Amino acid sequence: MSTLPKLAEADIRAWVGQRSFERARAYASDGSLFNLRRQGDTLKAQCQGSLPRPYSVEATLGAGGIEAADCSCPVGDGGLCKHVGALLMRWVKQPAAFAETETLDAALARRSQAELVALIRQMIARYPDLELLLELPAASDTRPLDTDVLRRQVRAAIDSAGDRWDGSYDAASQLESVVEVGAGYLRRGDPISAAAAYEATAREMLEHYEEFDDEEGEIGEQVNECVRGMASCLGQIAGARERERLLRGIFEIYLWDVEYGGIGIGEEAPAILTAQTTPAERALAADWVRDALPSGSNWSSNWRRQTLGGLLLKLQRESMDDEMFMRICRETGRTDELVARLLSLGRLGEALAEIRALNDSQLLDMATLVREAGYADAAEQLVRERLPSAERATPLTEWLKNVARERGDLAEALALCEALFWENPTLARYDELMRLAQQHHSWAELRPQLLARLADEGKYTLLTELHLQANEIEQALETLPMVVGWGVYSEVPLSIRVAQAAEESHPFEAIPLYAEAAAQLIRQQGRANYATAARYLARMRDIYQRLGQPEPWRALIAATREQNKRLRALQEELTSAGL
Which helix (H) or strand (E) holds 70? Predict the structure, then answer.
């Protein structure tokens, strides 16, 4: 047997990633790995993970180091999981633990037919569900395909999943062998049977889809694999009737997903229906789409109509003129494409009429489209018209402000920015307003007006923040007592940030701010609160020391310890902080 290249832990980390590498350490040494073996250049084992059934893990080594790996765990495709990391770590540390065994092909090849039959009987006796696999067509089977067999296989996978939380993953693993039947027919040059196999398998999975908990999309991916297989069959089938049936199957899988709400099943179908078809087939598919268009007016119906409308436009793009294109857009709610086409034709009035019927959010998107098409004045007029009746004026005002700034109208942008600030006075809005006013050279005049109005309206939290931001410590100390709560602009309480800023210039005002915060934290209890309180008390100690007044500090810390002598955790935190 060939010598395998040496591996280092750095190679394993580079392969599986830091997080999987760290988590792999425990698996490599806690007995989770068993049945370790080496088959040629491939290392194999089973690993007991979080699921009842052990995972199958393998990694292939070569001249370049780790060349391939795989694991049957939910995230093991490609072999980047912790279980593969554990296997490789075990090889690095204990290569002698791996028994050298034959490859599977070699082990089967040296057995006689009778021995293989006996072996299969043993397997079925241990795992009775394997008997169902004997129903699947063999590579040499010349009998016509019985799609009922495939449907039974799908239902058996569903039944085996039950209501276990990992059932979908387990079922998807079993379904791979059913999907492979179609691939087998395709390899044998029988695309008709392959197409029938793929379609029957996909339809049965969708028929029972709600019986799965397919949160990770394993079952959906098996359906998508069937769609990809059907597309491969399409490239090898010439008969018009057979192609029509196959195309219809692909469309109906996509339609199932649209009616389900759009979860990505059959997502490749639109590209197949538009790129792998003749003009006549596209016209036929367009008829299917029209028949499937919903007639309701609720959100779900509108979404499905718009989605199918997008496919209809793609299918008919070669055969329709502008008027037909726009009629389909209107019928299916594809307003963005309708407006874009009207603008490209210079029919601005019609485009604006369509936009005015939209809600506020949609109108803003379309206004941007109109502006980009070269109709800036019309776009602004649209938004200004809507402002008085808008459910929320803020997004529209924001749009107008940004447009004004882009065209260099600082006065307009500043006026709109100030309106936005008073709708929701925040530190971020204030900062934006300041930058604009500074560019407009009007900040010195505007700022006192803003501060005065904030005081009149009782916005003391923001007012204190603004004084703090401008290093106006005395003013911050004056407005702080009128603040309700701890402030909302930082994880650190506003009073503490004011105290920190005031330590040098106003130490006697900073001390009681720290003292009150520490007392409040002690009343709330909890070790984390005690640790924070200790930090605040330490700041007070430092201030007293700088002031040359150790006695008030000694009296304070002694009183704090005495009053809270029953709080063991607090006493420990104070000691830990050197208090």
Answer: strand 65-71
